[in-house]
Amino acid sequence: MRYLVSVIDDKSNPGSTDRQPAISAFNERLIAEGYWVFAGGLADTDAATVIDNRGEQAVFSDGPFVESKEYLAGVWVWEAPDLDVALKLAAEASKVCDRKVEVRPFQ
Amino acid sequence: MSDVEKAITRAHHEEWARVVAALTRRFGDLDIAEEAAAEAFTTAVERWPADGVPPNPGAWLTTTANRKAIDRIRRENKRDDKHREAQMAYHDDPPAPPPSAIDDDRLRLIFTCCHPALAMEARVALTLRMVGGLTVPEIARAFLVAESAMGQRITRAKAKIKAARIPYRVPSAEDLPARVSSVLTVLLLVFNEGYLATGPDTDPLRHDLTAEAIRLTRLIRTLLPDDGEVAGLLALMLLTEARRTARVSAGGELVALDEQDRGAWDTALIAEGHRLVRERLAAAAAGVAPGRYQILAAINAVHTSARDIRDTDWSQVLALYDQLVRLDPSPIIALNRAIAVAELDGPEVALAAVDRLEHRLAGYHPYHATRADLLRRLGRGQESRAAYDKAIDLAGNTAETAYLTRRRDQLR
């Protein structure tokens, strides 16, 4: 089963910025234990562009699709046998990156 | 009730969870298990009066439910059901696990329904439906929620279990204490909903909830006989339930502990509760630290041991509260502790302790009711009246409001 693990940061109360070494070590472990599929940190939401091409022509707009205090700061994709395994890893992930994380299964 | 009706009710109580649990394991799907179990019981209601009660009702129900489930899967036999078919063929004759083993199917079912990834209200509803066998309309009525909303709550929870793959298994030893604690919280919520909501127009369904909570806790106790907190919660429920009839007067007014007719308490429930508390005291003496339910049960055991309020061993009650405060520093525990302090050190000392909780309990009616009583005992009538007024304003339960109003109006 694949799970998307979203790292949620908070603009008014951001997590600490010195987590990279710990996250790298955690990623090494995810790879070694066979859970790792993908991981990536995201640039600031200011760098986002929304494209809507459902109409006559594509419309580009600056900024994220939704403005909010909380935003997606990065993602993991994990392969785990069930939610209990994913939640256990997610609890560690939250500590490691000092941010909230959301676990959501792929269809 | 005819003998057949009694047999069906008994089978429903004893076998529902077992049937749902066995089907869930076999078919890997809560929806199929629930629906097939319900159909099997409907068939029993139709057939047993004419055919007679089968010699082994549980086996009859499981076989019938299995057949219903297979029928349904065949009916729905679409392309995407190949997986299910394969599973079915594989598990065609699953070995029945020993009934008292820790991996009992019912235990898996309970842990799945009380999974921490589900919202608390979803856990409560799902447990009552899948483990308790209550119908959706019954659960909806018990929690004063529209039937459609309750149905949705249960459907959504089942969908999440499936989509997120919440596992159907007993948690590892390492996770077990936290997961058992989640199950016990659900059961206590069910019990409290029945117990605290008891009003003058006592809805019999509410009593069903306390009875149901006790029944399910007994079940957990047979499945996890060595867990002290399970024993503690069961004892707490039994000792509370024992006083149920004495707790509300014929006129629908709450009767406080000091005014209850102790002769009306249920001695069988008390004896059972006391046995459990003694068992846990022996474990504590052997060095197993008791959890909060065990301590709460012990406090209730002290109260139910006194034939008269004046015989209450308040120093014992206070010692237990001191132990509880160390485990759970919540202001509600501190408030209850103050009531014991009043009996030992007088209302003035207790009032000082209660007043320190104001900023945290100002919206909690027992805080004001406790203050009102202490102020009354100190002869501070006017302040007592004001505290009763606040308590009456905040109390949601009519039996409690009636009691508080009488106490206020008795002030001079």
TrEMBL record, chain A:
Gene3D superfamilies: Dimeric alpha+beta barrel (3.30.70.1060). It comes from the Bacteria. Pfam families: YCII. Residues 1-102 form the YCII-related domain. Belongs to the YciI family. This is Uncharacterized conserved protein. It comes from Streptosporangium subroseum.
UniProtKB/TrEMBL annotation, chain B:
It comes from the Bacteria. This is RNA polymerase sigma-70 factor, ECF subfamily. Keywords: Sigma factor, Transcription, Transcription regulation. Residues 179-279 form the DUF6596 domain. The keyword Transcription applies. Residues 18-78 form the RNA polymerase sigma-70 region domain. GO terms for molecular function: DNA binding; sigma factor activity. Residues 110-161 form the RNA polymerase sigma factor 70 region 4 type domain. Residues 75-94 have a biased composition (Basic and acidic residues). Residues 75-101 are annotated as: Disordered. One of its GO terms (biological process) is DNA-templated transcription initiation. It holds the Pfam family Sigma70_r2. Belongs to the sigma-70 factor family. ECF subfamily.
